[in-house]
Amino acid sequence: MGTSGTLDATFAALADPTRRAILARLATGDATVTELAVPFAMSQPAVSKHLRVLERAGLVKRGRDAQRRPCHLVAEPLKAATAWLAGYRDYWEASYQQLDDLLKDLQP
Fold it and tell me: For 11, 31, 66, 97, which has the most beta carbons within 10 A of its beta carbon?
């Protein structure tokens, strides 16, 4: 998947609050589907569907540990998304500076 495809998949995966919450939980350590389902009012199959989206985006990998299948956060696609967003930081900083200058000019 190219950079554009990776960004598309990452942002599509991050668009859902449940998937963002799953990633936040996995940032604290690996977890099984059963463990991930606990804070949500949804079934394990529903959580598994969210995990498949996260896996396709490259944000999650599932392992095997005897009978457990822990899910693991893969942060690399988030780094690419952060780098892409950082490209707009200068634009917003310049815009805020222009607003600050305008507000100073408007003060008596």
Answer: 31
Tokens of 42: 């949804």
Helix 17-26 vs helix 3-14: angle between axes, to the nearest 10 degrees?
Answer: 100
Q: How far apart are CA 69 and CA 34, in angstroms?
A: 10
Strand, helix or coil at 103? helix
Question: What sign does the dihedral 35-40-43-49 (CA atoms) show?
Answer: negative
Are the C-beta atoms of 63 and 72 separated by less than 8 Å?
Answer: yes
Count of other CB atoms within 10 angstroms of residue 51: 20
Q: Looking at residue 98, what DSSP letter applies?
A: H
pLDDT at 1 over 60: no
Q: What is the CA radius of gyration of the chain?
A: 19
For the full predicted model, state whether its pTM sits above 0.85: no
